[in-house]
Design goal:
With 395 residues, the protein is α/β, with parallel strands linked by helices. It is 33% helix and 19% strand. The chain has 12 helices and 16 strands. It is globular. InterPro entries: Beta-ketoacyl_synthase, Ketoacyl_synth_AS, Ketoacyl_synth_C, Ketoacyl_synth_N, PKS_Beta-ketoAc_synthase_dom, Thiolase-like.
């Protein structure tokens, strides 16, 4: 039996980014275009790590202290416990689901151990318990134990689309009555594997990225997490409403997006159709906007083909960096602030707009009544995801 609802309430949120803990410091720095990228990377500061520890260890939700704390586990538990506190949840139930998007899982636990193990000459002894945390599922198991969570936990690892797809999957779980409440989002931690991998692809910029700029040269890797409570029957005033979204796999190339943004167009058009909305209903778009040559061209082509009215389109990755699988969830927090404040931040880092990109790209804050926001994400392997949030419930 399927639910007749087309939208569900977003009631709580928690996050950690290079800008700090929670959405407010991130929001203020998006408005001011203040970048937290240093030497091309966005790290969570040691002071913020200590603050997360202090908060988490006093949280009533931490039932069992994990034997090992990866950065991802700390980021995730911090964000989830903040979200469920804001949503005024009093318990975690069997009918709840947690859906996590990530590409690296708990890599900080096992990366160095694996390198030691693989040394050809004089391999060093390794902690096999840490090494056993390599599977993605280990993150789910650690969270389940720490929170004594009685429901199901899903891990999605669909590259940079992972947390956007996690949020879409949460909507699907509620719409098909597979869950009554969902906690959805994403987490990512910086690692040598990630940094060296992207460096080999020659995608990294040592300077803060410049999405859609004529002089853009590449992306900034970062870390962080953001999670949201999504409910059918909230007991608090919703922050916004989550509408249906969709994911489309175009399989165009392992690492490059389709030149015409074919997959992104199909994902967006499907999301609009599912919600009985027209392109003109969309007030603004938070693009993926990584600052790479190929991504920005592909995404702009897709958006221009769908939105003839050219709604304001932004990217905030120049502030917080590209947290890979967590990026869509982090940017949802910014979208919630835009929806409720009626203010659109500028495209961070944009100085001279690429003359081949004809999007409406704000270079300063814009005050505007916002009804519907589309969030888009592109991932390696041709994974394209898009969802819509709005101010009002959609029955």
């Amino acid at each position: 039996m399927h639910s007749s609802q087309l939208s569900f309430s977003i009631t709580g949120m928690g996050s950690i980014t290079p800008a700090g803990s929670g959405i407010n410091p991130l929001w203020e720095n998006c408005l001011n275009s203040t970048s937290f990228i240093k030497a091309g990377l966005g790290h969570i500061s040691d002071n913020d790590i200590q603050e997360l520890w202090n908060q988490l260890l006093t949280s009533k939700w931490l039932v069992n202290k994990p034997a090992y704390f990866s950065r991802s586990l700390l980021f995730t538990l911090h964000s989830i416990t903040n979200a469920i506190d804001l949503a005024a949840w009093t318990s975690l139930n069997e009918t709840d689901v947690i859906i996590i998007g990530t590409t690296t899982g708990q890599i900080s636990l096992w990366e160095k151990e694996l390198i030691q193990l693989l040394k050809v000459e004089s391999p060093l002894p390794v902690d096999t318990d840490k090494l056993s945390r390599q599977p993605m599922q280990s993150l789910a198991e650690s969270i389940k134990s720490a929170l004594n969570f009685p429901g199901k936990i899903l891990i999605l690892a669909s590259a940079c689309s992972a947390s956007t797809q996690a949020i879409i999957t949460a909507h699907n779980y509620l719409a098909t009555n597979r869950a009554q409440r969902a906690i959805a989002g994403g987490v990512e931690e910086l690692s040598e594997l990630t940094i060296n991998g992207f460096n080999c692809l020659k995608l990294l910029s040592l300077e803060p990225c410049r999405p859609f700029d004529q002089s853009r040269v590449g992306i900034n890797l970062s870390e962080g997490a953001a999670f949201y409570t999504i409910e059918k029957h909230p007991t608090v005033t919703p922050l916004a409403y989550l509408y249906a979204g969709d994911t489309f796999l175009d399989s165009y190339h392992m690492t490059s997006p389709s030149v015409e943004g074919t997959g992104m167009q199909k994902a967006l058009l499907s999301a609009l159709k599912k919600n009985n909305l027209s392109p003109d209903d969309i007030s603004m778009v938070h693009a993926h906007g990584t600052g790479s040559i190929q991504n920005d061209q592909s995404e702009s082509h897709a958006l221009l083909n769908i939105f003839s009215h050219k709604p304001p389109t932004i990217s905030t990755k120049g502030v917080h960096g590209h947290a890979l699988g967590a990026s869509g969830a982090i940017e949802l927090g910014i979208c919630l602030k835009i929806l409720n404040e009626g203010v659109i931040p500028p495209v961070t880092g944009l100085v001279n707009q690429d003359e081949l990109i004809a999007l409406n790209l704000p270079v300063e804050t814009v005050k505007q009544d916002i009804r519907f926001i589309a969030k888009t994400t592109l991932g390696f392997g041709g994974v394209n995801s898009a969802f819509i949030i709005g101010k009002v419930a959609h029955a």
